[in-house]
Multiple inositol polyphosphate phosphatase 1
Amino acid sequence: MLPLRRRQRRRLRWGLGVPGAAVLLACVAACALAERASAGRASALSAHFGTKSRYEDVARPRPGPGPAGPCAPLQLVALVRHGTRYPTAKQVGRLRALHGLLLRAGPPGPGLAGALARWPLAYEDWMDGQLVDKGRRDMRRLAARLAARFPLLLGRAGLARVRLVSSSKPRCVDSAVAFARGLWAHLHPGLPEPEPADMEFGPPEINDKLMRFFDHCEKFLTEVEKNDSALYQVEAFKNGPEMQKIIKKVAAILQVPPSDLNADLIQVAFFSCSFDLAIRDIQSPWCDVFDTEDAQVLEYLNDLKQYWKRGHGYAINSRSSCSLFQDIFHHLDEAVEQRQRSQPISSPVIFHFGHAETLLPLLSLMGYFKDKEPLTAYNYKEQMNRQFRSGHIVPYASNLIFVLYHCEHAETPARAYQVQLLLNEEPLPFVHSPETVAVYQELKDHYKDVLQSCHSDRECVLPNINITSDEL
């Protein structure tokens, strides 16, 4: 604290007498209110960031009841999306273009446009979707919560039998390693963490045919991924009245002609708010550009893309995941058979680390989050209460967990094996039943067609097109 006389001299030098001090305090109070308002706005927007959502903003983990009676978890098979990541190089390029547009508009002035022009571009091409520190914390915390929830499967004695399978993408491999570290630290509190190679589980297995099945499906690649017309609904919505209204609004805020903006730049501006919030825990001024109504429109744009490219839009989106679905049930079957023969379960815990593009097709194959009407460019208002909200299904660190139980004293041998699904650590009712626990055989019967007749190698083959010609 400065001595009184020095404080008085400084106040006089600044031209702040007592009235000036009151003005300064008022400014400080106003700034604090503005910061709180900005934080509140970012919090309101965070429910609409789609696949760029923070896990803690949309997930509500809760234990929920397991099977009734004396039942013990026998096996856990999980699919986990990687943790929070940097923007991809493509997204960084759009952020750079947006920043350049602001700088070309002239020297930064007062107001929101000036604050945006002065806001530094924190992301570079080399980051390209890599896992960030927050993403590692996502994984460590998830591991600790699951270890506390399933001590019989994830206790110290079972660590050596934990299997980790990952996509080859560095963000997924790093997520698997961070998860393993979090699991180890939870079970060895206070001890220094060893290197991943020295832990009981060893490094993750790389299996892109399971975790990135979409890259190995020729029909999907040709008819959806590389087919511009496949995303017709997305492009139509970009040019529709809801998006055009936002483009005009943002152009006025940025003080640039509306013709300088397009839906892709608007979307990346919205994601700039989500990136800074998720990665750096910072309230970006970009959050002040959008209100909740804008956020709902931009969320729908993101959901449209996910719906037509990864969800129920085309059958091949989900059918391409057959191999992963069958692999999960292969592990569950194997555990049942080994338990029936009184053998130890060879793989009691399997964690797969992949992408939103891994989880969404599989959930679609299982029949989840399917609205009565498809999402289109023209039914935005009718779909306000839609089931398919990608941010609430596959935020960063999202997870789908199959928990197989063995129940003593069951009425019949078949009923001794029961299964529960957890989506983002919350019990997920079954498609065929409102219950959250099902007899395993009944679940298999419900998915009999997929398990017996859905084969990725056949589903993914492009149909032969016979072309005839009358020309000689």
